[in-house]
Amino acid sequence: MTDTRGDRARFWRHPGLPGVDLLKAHYVRHSFNRHTHDTYAIGVIEDGIEEFSYRGALHRVGRGDLVVVEPGEVHTGHAGAPEGWRYRMLYPEVDVVAQAARDLGMPDVPGFHVSESGDPAGAALLRTAHRAAEHGDRLSASTLMRQVLHRLLSRNSRARPTNPGPPGPDRAVAEARDLLNNTLADPPSLEELAAAVDVSPFALLRAFRAVHGLPPHAYLNNLRVLRARRLLATGMRPAEVAGELGFADQPHLTRHFKRQLGVTPGAFRRGVLAAQGADTAAPDG
């Protein structure tokens, strides 16, 4: 649990549905930087107003609104009112959503609307499912969570565009991305990265941002945080994770982790391990 200048958040793992993490938070001062998730991000606003940039537009959502952010999509988040916003989020992995789509006979997961303000029953269902998970009711939580996914897929989806990818030197960007994925602890400079894929630094920077929505360094830090989340969930301590992933120190990890996920690495680790029945008595930042 975090409690910084009025902000409060709890991050934990779903007790009955593997591959789903959950967040319950009230943010007033916190502002999420531009980032992505490797999972879906699905939530309901319980009170207040959140504003977030996503797919080239600024969105404003309030009480009872549902929000869906797809994996790999760059977005932000900040308060849209003095009292901030209070929400419940779930982060299902891609395979979880894909299985829910197969349950409905869909050959592939369709794209989602960004937000939905006209589905009070869906918002209530998500809140109920989230609360069941919060209380540790594994059967109810897992059943209701699948119902949430089925409802979203059947009611709030749209057809994907046939060619959504922006133009650019795809080969160079793909090779640069793979190189960054393999050098988290000791990444190359932009010049070295560009030389490795045989393009100019400017061309790589422009093309990489066009494809991924982030420049290479921001993509790398985003990827580090995603990896950090997985390592922390295994019980690794924040200081060890910071060294493993090439962060300068634990405060460096904490700064990026909290800006992206809304909780500190230590709070995330304690929440996940507590759900697994692990010993988390020792403070770890």
CATH class placement of the largest domain: Mainly Beta
Q: What about the largest sheet? A: 10 strands, antiparallel
Number of domains: 2
In quaternary terms, these chains amount to single chain
- What fraction, in percent, of the residue positions are helical? 40-55%
Number of helices in the DSSP assignment: 10
CATH architecture of the largest domain: Sandwich
Helix/strand structural class: alpha+beta
State the order of secondary-structure elements, H for helix, E for strand.
EEEEEEEEEHEEHHEHHHHHHH
Q: Give the percentage of residues in beta strands.
A: 15-25%
**Distance N terminus to C terminus?**
12 Å
Principal-axes shape call: globular
| Alpha carbon gyration radius | 19 Å
CATH homologous superfamily placement of the largest domain: Jelly Rolls
Mean pLDDT: 89
Number of strands: 12
CATH topology-level name of the largest domain: Jelly Rolls
Account of the protein in words:
By secondary structure, the chain is an alpha+beta fold. The chain is built from 10 helices and 12 strands. Strands 1, 2, 3, 4, 5, 6, 7, 8, 9 and 11 form a 10-stranded antiparallel sheet that branches. Strands 10-12 form a two-stranded antiparallel ribbon. Strand 1 (2-4) and strand 2 (7-13) form a beta hairpin. The protein is globular and about 55 Å long. Mean pLDDT is 89; it is low at 162-168.
